[in-house]
Design brief:
50% of the residues lie in helices and 8% in strands. With 208 residues, the protein is mainly alpha-helical.
C-alpha cells in the first residue's frame, strides 16, 4: 500500500483489522514501512525499513546504494550457474538461458530506475550472457572477429519472430524501452484510477 508518509501511522494501525475482516492473519513481523524520515511512532507499530525494502522482487528505496546492491546480488545469482550451461545439450542450455536465467534480469530492467550504476550492472550481465552463448556454441576461445560469433551475438538479441534467440540486451536500447513502457503502464493506471493523486506525485511518499 503506497500512501503519503504523513498518514502512514494511520494506515499501519488499521491493517490488522483489515486482514481480520477477510479472515486472514497479518504477519506483523514481515510487514514493513518505508518512506521519508519516519520515526517509530509514525510507523503504526510496524517494522521500519531504514534503507528500503523489496516489493514484488524489486528494490524500493530513495537510497541508490540499496537499489544497486539488490540488483547486483540478483544478477550475480543468475550469472553464477552460467558456466555449467556449456556441459548441457545446446537446446537445453538455450532454454534455460532464455526462460530461466534471463527472466529476473528482464523484470528488473523494466521496473528499476536506470541510474548509471544499475546500467553498468546490466551491461556486465549482457556480457555474461554473450560468454555463456559462446560456451554453448563451443566458441569460447574463438576470436571475436570471427563472422560466426558476430552473427551469433547479433541474432542473440533479435526477437524470436525475426529469427533471433529472444535474449534482449538489458543494458541497451531494449532495456531502456522496456523500462519506459513499464512507466507508461503505471502512468495510465494512475490516470484512470488515482487521477486526484497525480498532482502530488512528486511529493515525498511513503509505502506501508
Amino acid at each position: 500500500i503506497f500512501c503519503p508518509s504523513a498518514v502512514a501511522h494511520l494506515v499501519g494501525a488499521r491493517l490488522p483489522g483489515i486482514f481480520e475482516q477477510y479472515g486472514l492473519a497479518m504477519a506483523a513481523g514481515k510487514s514493513m514501512v518505508y518512506g521519508g524520515n519516519l520515526q517509530g511512532d509514525e510507523a503504526g507499530g510496524l517494522v521500519r525499513a531504514h534503507d528500503g525494502l523489496v516489493c514484488l522482487g524489486a528494490p524500493v528505496s530513495l537510497n541508490t546504494d540499496f537499489v544497486v546492491q539488490h540488483v547486483q546480488q540478483s544478477l550475480e545469482a543468475e550469472v553464477n550457474p552460467m558456466p555449467a550451461l556449456r556441459h548441457l545439450k545446446p537446446w537445453t542450455a538455450l532454454s534455460l538461458l532464455r526462460f530461466s536465467i534471463n527472466q529476473r534480469p528482464g523484470y528488473l530492467a523494466r521496473v528499476v530506475q536506470r541510474v548509471p550504476e544499475v546500467c553498468a550492472l546490466f551491461n556486465l550481465f549482457d556480457d555474461s550472457v554473450d560468454n555463456a552463448l559462446l560456451g554453448i556454441m563451443r566458441l569460447v576461445n574463438a576470436s571475436r572477429d570471427n563472422s560466426t560469433i558476430a552473427t551469433a551475438l547479433q541474432l542473440r538479441s533479435l526477437p524470436l519472430q525475426l529469427g533471433g534467440l529472444g535474449l534482449a540486451r538489458h543494458g541497451g536500447v531494449a532495456g531502456v524501452a522496456a523500462n519506459m513502457q513499464s512507466r507508461e503502464v503505471l502512468v495510465r493506471h494512475m490516470q484512470e484510477h488515482y487521477a486526484d493523486l497525480l498532482p502530488q506525485a512528486d511529493v515525498d511518499w511513503g509505502g506501508v
